[in-house]
């Protein structure tokens, strides 16, 4: 056999020892293919320099954590690669020594490329025709960092493909990187980037998944087991029923640790005699993994995902934003209040339970911030629909499953479902628009049982009861829910103005019919808008009414109270004016005057059996039990649709606003019936009562004399 390759290697090693930066030279000798590529140092120098700069600052993908409001209780995680970045000081010396023994015994002697290792690999490859790599820890880190920072499939391929060109670039970058980073920094980054199998990326994840402990507590045996996995995570997987390969690899690492002086021969021998003892952990992932104790919080988690995907602060597209959620290492604290959430869970579905086609749900929002304090529905948050009965929608077919008892559908809002017709709860929007335009609470109209509208081309709505006939004001008209009064009032203020105000208060039109009616060309003729023929979600309605409780200041609905970057700083976004604001901070704006909102609240006390500050409710109301249940000043509005296909109640105090509904999400024509209309009223009243228990009672601010009239 020719000895030319061996002689060539012998001449090259001293050159590298002499400090020649041209790792490319030895690569060209060891990989003759390079000569055919026309690759020159000058042609690649700029690209290599740029990538080296990226590697200095590149951080691997990191798990994002979702916490309960205490900021400590982990509800779930989002990750593409399960990883938590860990400082070297928080790692046991055992794992640092084991990884050196397993992968690069001369790590602390070379400068990124190991001349001996390259020569050894070259000789072995020349003799056997193999492809021994000779990659140092630094070179391996370069490869992982290039892969992790890749933004296109092409970049991923270039970072991992088995070619001479890649190897040369890798060597050059490793040499350059070691001029910029210390060995300790490279070791830290390596151990946070390496893949150990079982979706464990980085040493924190590996320690937790295999041994249910932190990297700081790893023993030599455990460290050697993990270090042995890097070479081939599947081949040496200790979780396999047969641990023969894993044990052999671990023992090899222990022997190398002994040879390098990290372990005494006796300690290594004792360690090798031990079996591999695992304590496996499966980290939760996504909303379906929320612990059973917090199952109902899964709906809020799902809302968080939908909200996140719409925030420009996290990327230019929905895909990019969700990718950042799974890779960005955020610390997300939900806004749910455990006390209010518990009250909501207890008070929804008390009569229906999870085994009903009728969904009874509630959302509670905080006036002045828009933070969601509770989301609950009589459903189990689960992906498993196997035990669900067929859908109640006759057009769905027998193979389509119903949404109960299990579902992950966003029945409470925040997703792509249209919602449910909200009935007379929409009367708030023309009343608020009228008050904000200068009309007074005392605006009076002799409301007939049936009213023929000239504005709406002869449309003739009627009241639910003949007892509503007669002279009405905003107080009595709202308290009794007099349809003909509000159709007349909407004519006076203009339907389009009411529609646009609803939009400013957060409502969105999700069906073709609603979008058509709300369009600029047709909104002025949408007379039935005040009767709540449009679909809405409880999230939207709770937040819209919360703005009225906050003196007309609307705040966007938000599911978080804090979002922190991986470095612990608050996550921010840039406004159109270039101002950086925290993503988790309330985003509020004044939509109507404070006096108009206070006047609307005064009228909205009538439906609940409360006493307004200035006017008369006319003797009776649609939900007069609410005030007695809540036990403090409260305002709100009932809403039912034709044939009581759905029923609603939206109520609020100065501290909280809550919206509850009951309807069949699968089949809107499956009427809940008049007997069920009290369920949302009770759910809101009891949730406000329980959620505010023990807190000081606050009063509504009365409207001014000018707006009372």
Automatic annotation (TrEMBL):
Entry-linked SUPFAM superfamilies: beta-lactamase/transpeptidase-like, Lysozyme-like
Bilayer-spanning residue ranges: 12-34
UniProt keyword terms in alphabetical order: Carboxypeptidase, Glycosyltransferase, Hydrolase, Membrane, Multifunctional enzyme, Protease, Transferase, Transmembrane, Transmembrane helix
Glycosyl transferase family domain residues: 74-257
Domain Penicillin-binding protein transpeptidase: 362-666
Substrates-to-products reaction catalysed: [GlcNAc-(1->4)-Mur2Ac(oyl-L-Ala-gamma-D-Glu-L-Lys-D-Ala-D-Ala)](n)-di-trans,octa-cis-undecaprenyl diphosphate + beta-D-GlcNAc-(1->4)-Mur2Ac(oyl-L-Ala-gamma-D-Glu-L-Lys-D-Ala-D-Ala)-di-trans,octa-cis-undecaprenyl diphosphate = [GlcNAc-(1->4)-Mur2Ac(oyl-L-Ala-gamma-D-Glu-L-Lys-D-Ala-D-Ala)](n+1)-di-trans,octa-cis-undecaprenyl diphosphate + di-trans,octa-cis-undecaprenyl diphosphate + H(+); Preferential cleavage: (Ac)2-L-Lys-D-Ala-|-D-Ala. Also transpeptidation of peptidyl-alanyl moieties that are N-acyl substituents of D-alanine
Signal peptide: none
Name of the molecule in the record: Transglycosylase domain-containing protein
InterPro entries: Beta-lactam/transpept-like (IPR012338), Glyco_trans_51 (IPR001264), Glycosyltr_51/Transpeptidase (IPR050396), Lysozyme-like_dom_sf (IPR023346), PBP_transglycosylase (IPR036950), PCN-bd_Tpept (IPR001460)
Pfam families reported for this sequence: Transgly, Transpeptidase
């Amino acid at each position: 056999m020719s000895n030319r390759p061996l002689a060539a290697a012998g001449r090259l090693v001293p050159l590298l020892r002499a400090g020649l930066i041209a790792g490319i030279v030895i690569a060209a000798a060891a990989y003759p293919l390079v000569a055919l590529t026309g690759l020159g140092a000058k042609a690649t120098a700029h690209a290599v320099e740029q990538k080296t700069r990226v590697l200095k600052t590149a951080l691997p993908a990191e798990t994002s954590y979702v916490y309960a409001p205490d900021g400590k209780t982990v509800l779930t995680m989002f990750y593409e690669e399960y990883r938590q970045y860990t400082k070297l000081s928080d790692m046991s010396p055992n794992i640092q020594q084991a990884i050196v023994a397993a992968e690069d015994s001369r790590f602390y002697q070379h400068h990124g490329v190991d001349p001996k290792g390259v020569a050894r690999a070259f000789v072995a490859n020349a003799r056997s025709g193999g492809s021994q790599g000779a990659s140092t820890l630094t070179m391996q880190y370069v490869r992982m960092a290039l892969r992790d920072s890749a933004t296109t499939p092409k970049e991923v391929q270039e970072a991992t493909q088995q070619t001479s060109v890649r190897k040369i670039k890798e060597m050059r970058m490793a040499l350059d990187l070691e001029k910029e980073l210390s060995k300790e920094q490279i070791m830290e980054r390596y151990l946070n980037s390496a893949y150990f199998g079982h979706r464990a990326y980085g040493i924190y994840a590996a320690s937790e998944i295999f041994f249910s402990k932190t990297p700081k507590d790893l023993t030599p045996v455990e460290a050697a087991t993990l270090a042995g996995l890097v070479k081939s995570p599947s081949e040496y997987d200790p979780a396999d029923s047969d641990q023969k390969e894993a044990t052999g690899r671990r023992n090899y690492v222990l022997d190398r640790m002994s040879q390098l002086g990290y372990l005494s021969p006796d300690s290594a021998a004792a360690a090798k005699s031990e079996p591999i003892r695992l304590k496996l952990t499966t980290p939760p992932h996504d909303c379906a993994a929320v612990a059973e104790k917090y199952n109902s919080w899964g709906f809020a988690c799902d809302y968080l995902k939908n909200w996140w995907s719409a925030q420009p602060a996290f990327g230019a597209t929905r895909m990019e934003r969700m990718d950042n959620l799974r890779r960005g290492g955020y610390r997300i604290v939900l806004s749910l209040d455990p006390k209010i959430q518990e009250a909501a869970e207890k008070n929804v579905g008390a009569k229906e339970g999870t085994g009903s086609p009728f969904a009874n749900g509630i959302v509670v929002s905080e006036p002045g911030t828009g933070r969601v304090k509770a989301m609950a529905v009589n459903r189990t948050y689960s992906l498993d629909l196997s035990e669900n009965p067929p859908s109640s929608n006759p057009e769905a077919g027998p193979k389509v499953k119903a949404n109960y008892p299990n579902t992950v559908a966003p029945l409470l809002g925040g997703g792509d479902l249209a919602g449910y017709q909200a009935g007379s709860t929409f009367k708030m929007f023309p009343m608020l628009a009228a008050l904000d335009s200068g009309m007074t609470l005392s605006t009076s109209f002799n409301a007939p049982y049936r009213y023929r509208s000239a504005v709406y081309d002869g449309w003739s709505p009627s009241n639910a009861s003949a007892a509503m006939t007669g002279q009405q004001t905003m107080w009595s008209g709202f308290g009794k829910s007099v349809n003909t009064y509000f159709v007349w009032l909407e004519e006076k203020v203009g339907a389009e103005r009411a529609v646009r105000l609803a939009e400013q208060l957060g409502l969105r039109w999700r069906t073709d019919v609603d979008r058509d009616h709300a369009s600029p060309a047709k909104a002025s003729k949408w007379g039935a808008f005040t009767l709540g023929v449009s679909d809405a979600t409880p999230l939207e309605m709770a937040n819209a009414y919360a703005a009225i409780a906050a003196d007309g200041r609307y705040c966007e609905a938000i599911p978080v109270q804090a979002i922190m970057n991986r470095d612990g700083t608050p996550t921010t976004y840039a406004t159109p004016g270039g101002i950086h604001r925290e993503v988790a901070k309330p985003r509020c704006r004044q939509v109507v005057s404070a006096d108009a909102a206070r006047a609307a609240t005064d009228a909205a006390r009538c439906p609940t059996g409360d006493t307004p500050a200035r006017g008369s409710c006319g003797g009776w109301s649609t939900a007069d039990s609410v005030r007695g249940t809540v036990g403090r000043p409260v305002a709100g509005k009932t809403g039912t649709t034709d044939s009581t296909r759905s029923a609603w109640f939206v109520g609020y105090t100065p501290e909280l606003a809550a919206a509850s509904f009951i309807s069949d999400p699968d089949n809107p024509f499956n009427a809940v019936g008049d007997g069920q209309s009290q369920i949302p009223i009770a759910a809101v009243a009891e949730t406000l009562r329980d959620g505010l228990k023990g807190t000081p009672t606050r009063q509504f601010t009365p409207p001014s004399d000018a707006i009372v009239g």
